[in-house]
């Protein structure tokens, strides 16, 4: 029977099957960070258990690390400091490989995995973080888990799971200039909604997806969770193999050849069954921007803020009104021209070197508008180093952007980088929920180029006018 | 984990769709290394004013719902972040059961690991239960996991589905790590047949 990419990875990882169909699923890679792991290690300790496979496990600090240049002098916030120190004690006690803040390889866990060659095609990858879906761009089955499951994986290297349903999202045709992976995924979420993928693993396919570089693919899969999907997947191809080759933890020499031979068997078979199929035309996707407080509240930058009066469903209408009031927007107003206070370029969605280059291309020779604070937070110490060596960093610094250390930063307001109440932010992150970037903060999600355009003009702006 | 068998309790109505886990517990409260003590921060931004005082109109601040053990919620409850602090906060407040038309996958799964029963019921059924919940302490819902029914105050019953394995674990308060370790031989065998090219992460 023809199988999908998801089916193949799943089948290859079933260790055992319980009577009711629940599977004991083997986990190849477990990524650990400071926020969702302390209770899991504590559970192991209390039960007298060990980490079953330290060679499948990697830990990094990212969520609540400061991103200022002085951070190695010490973390001021006592609770953040305790979480970081707790992780450091746990990795030492249990023997887990760890990238601390002082290591150039430190960064956002979902940037580090692919960058280091830790996340590879055909693998099962988990992390106590919903954006683990990111790694699906490598052609891996990657999904977020809770802390109880983190403990379960540490102790057993498996999870108890039932297979998800298969969903295919195909984006046909070619992308217009100025349109990126971020715009594709925002358009998809706008079409299928924040629960459109619930219970499913989404495989992204089609010419527009194939044409993306790995950074663009990682962005698309990163936000699969914002469509409610457990995971996003993109079939591995030559772009994937070329990206992996030579990375520190990737297989080398003959092992690499053997791996590629296997990875080539992974793409979905002709005629494989999908429970749901959605098709988009790339030519119809513009640079997108969110207007509301969930990622499906999205419009093209050329569009206008929708009017709740046009919504027949009472609950949805009330929700729209609530969003407009929170975001301080009026029905029918053009979204372009909306003034911003802060611009954030970073997060596991858009902090890779390719993302920073997109921003620099727009910002080059211009300057951040008066009164706007613009932050660039590279996804890892190595991205930062590369950007500094090739000159991308200098372009952004000359344009008046703050150039910071790697971490999750202003994506989630767990570290010192936060919005203050009422501030409006053009952000390359993934969630525009109320208070996500700081209590009372207003978030507009968009691509790195669009963020840079907002920074230099001081307002939401169609990036195509600046390139 | 505490067993879940039968629960008869006051239900709090929260008729809002897409309640994400940032709403259930904002990120600034995740800086803990414990599972307990999060109840006071449950729904923090919906529940408290900036000065820390309670918002009188929020459901859990109303006297009749302060001891609610059931939450009747809207579509796509628990979407967003995978943080298990969300069910921990609900549990610490005293909520043992959440009923909604739909849930986000990760939150749904996390509930079972903590002795909370998430129940999916059709929208029209949830609307009736929402009406019952609006009566506060004058109406208690009963959730019978063994029989898989929710009983209204008027005696009307609604059947619900639950994964048999999850049901077994909840009814008996079982830690599933212990259950999985019964498969250790199969895990050993699986690891022994992994391809040799598969790289290992060594302390580097």
**What gross morphology of chain A would you assign?**
globular
Q: Approximately how much beta-strand content do the residues of chain A carry?
A: 15-25%
* Architecture (CATH level 2) name of the largest domain in chain A: 2-Layer Sandwich
The quaternary structure here is heterodimer
Structural class from helices and strands of chain B? alpha/beta
According to CATH, what is the topology of chain B? Aconitase, domain 4
Q: Which word captures the global form of chain B? A: globular
Largest sheet of chain A: 5 strands, parallel
In CATH, the architecture of chain B is Alpha-Beta Barrel
Low-pLDDT stretches of chain B are none
What attributes characterize this protein structure?
heterodimer; A: 467 residues; alpha/beta; Aconitase, domain 3; Aconitase, Domain 2; 3 domains; 5-stranded parallel beta sheet; 15 helices; B: 204 residues; Aconitase, domain 4; 7-stranded mixed beta sheet; 7 strands; branched-chain amino acid biosynthesis (chain A); 3-isopropylmalate dehydratase large subunit (chain A); 4Fe-4S (chain A); metal ion binding (chain A)
Describe the structure.
The complex is a heterodimer of chains A (467) and B (204). Chain A contains 15 helices and 19 strands. By secondary structure, chain A is of the alpha/beta class. Chain A has three domains: 157 residues, Aconitase, domain 3; 99 residues, Aconitase, Domain 2 (3-Layer(aba) Sandwich); 164 residues, Aconitase, domain 3 (2-Layer Sandwich). Chain A has a five-stranded parallel sheet with strand order 5-4-3-6-7. In chain A, strands 17-16-15-18-19 form a five-stranded parallel sheet, with helices on one face. In chain A, strand 15, helix 12 and strand 16 form a beta-alpha-beta unit. In chain A, 62% of the residues are buried. The mean pLDDT of chain A is 97. Chain B has 204 residues and is of the alpha/beta class. Chain B has a single domain, classed as Aconitase, domain 4 (Alpha-Beta Barrel).
């Amino acid at each position: 029977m023809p199988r999908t990419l998801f089916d193949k990875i799943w089948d290859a990882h079933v260790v055992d099957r319980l009577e009711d169909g629940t599977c004991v699923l083997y986990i190849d890679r477990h990524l650990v960070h400071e926020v969702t792991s302390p209770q899991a290690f504590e559970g192991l300790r209390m039960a007298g258990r060990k980490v079953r496979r330290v060679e499948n496990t990697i830990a990094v600090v990212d969520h609540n690390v400061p991103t200022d240049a002085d951070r190695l002098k010490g973390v001021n916030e006592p609770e953040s400091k305790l979480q970081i120190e707790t992780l450091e004690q746990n990795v030492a006690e249990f023997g887990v490989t760890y990238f601390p803040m002082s290591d150039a390889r430190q960064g956002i866990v979902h940037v580090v995995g692919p960058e280091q060659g830790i996340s590879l095609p055909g693998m099962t990858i988990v992390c106590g973080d919903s954006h683990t879906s990111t790694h699906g761009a490598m052609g891996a089955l990657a999904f977020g888990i809770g802390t109880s499951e983190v403990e379960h994986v540490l102790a057993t290297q498996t999870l108890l799971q039932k297979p998800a349903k298969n969903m295919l999202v195909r984006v046909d045709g070619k992308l217009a200039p100025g349109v990126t992976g971020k715009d594709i995924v925002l358009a998809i979420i706008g079409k299928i909604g924040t629960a459109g993928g619930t219970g499913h693993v989404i495989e992204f396919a089609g010419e527009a997806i194939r044409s993306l570089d790995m950074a663009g693919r990682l962005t698309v899969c990163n936000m699969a969770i914002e469509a409610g999907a457990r995971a996003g997947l993109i079939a591995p191809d030559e772009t994937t193999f070329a990206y992996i080759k030579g990375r520190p933890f990737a297989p080398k020499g003959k092992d690499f050849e053997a791996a590629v031979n296997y990875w080539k068997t992974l793409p979905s078979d002709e005629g494989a069954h999908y429970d749901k199929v959605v098709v988009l035309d790339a030519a119809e996707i513009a640079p997108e921007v969110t207007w509301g407080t969930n990622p499906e509240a999205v419009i093209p930058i050329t569009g206008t803020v929708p009017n709740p009066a046009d919504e027949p469903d009472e609950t949805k209408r009330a929700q729209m009104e609530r969003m407009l009031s929170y975001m301080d927007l009026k029905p029918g107003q053009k979204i372009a021209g909306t003034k911003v206070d802060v611009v954030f370029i970073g997060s596991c969605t858009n902090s890779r070197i390719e993302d920073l280059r997109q921003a620099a291309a727009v910002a080059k020779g211009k300057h951040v508008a008066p009164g706007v604070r613009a932050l660039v937070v590279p996804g890892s110490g190595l991205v930062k180093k590369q950007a500094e060596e090739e000159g991308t960093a200098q372009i952004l610094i000359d344009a008046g952007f703050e150039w910071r250390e790697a971490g999750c930063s202003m994506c989630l307001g767990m570290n010192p980088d936060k919005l203050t109440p009422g501030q409006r932010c053009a952000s390359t992150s993934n969630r525009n929920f109320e208070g996500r970037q700081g209590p009372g903060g207003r978030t507009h999600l968009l691509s790195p180029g669009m963020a840079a355009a907002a920074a230099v003009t001081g307002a939401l702006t169609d990036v195509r006018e600046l390139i | 984990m505490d067993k879940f068998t039968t629960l008869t309790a006051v239900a709090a109505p929260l008729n809002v769709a897409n309640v994400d886990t940032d709403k259930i517990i904002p990120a600034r409260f995740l800086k803990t290394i414990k599972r307990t003590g999060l109840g006071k921060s449950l729904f923090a931004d919906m529940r408290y004013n900036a000065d820390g005082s309670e918002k009188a109109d929020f459901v859990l601040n109303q006297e009749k719902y302060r001891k609610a053990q059931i939450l009747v919620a809207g579509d796509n409850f628990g979407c967003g972040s995978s943080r298990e602090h969300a069910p921990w906060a609900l549990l610490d407040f005293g909520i043992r059961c959440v009923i909604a038309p739909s849930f986000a996958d990760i939150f749904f799964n996390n509930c079972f690991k903590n002795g909370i029963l998430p129940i999916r019921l059709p929208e029209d059924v949830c609307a009736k239960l929402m009406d019952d919940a609006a009566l506060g302490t004058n109406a208690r819902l009963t959730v019978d996991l063994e029989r898989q029914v929710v009983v209204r105050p008027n005696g009307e019953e609604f059947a619900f589905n639950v994964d048999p394995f999850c049901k077994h674990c909840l009814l008996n308060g079982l830690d599933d790590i212990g259950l999985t370790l019964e498969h250790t031989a199969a895990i050993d065998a699986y690891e022994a047949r992994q391809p040799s090219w598969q790289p290992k992460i060594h302390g580097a």
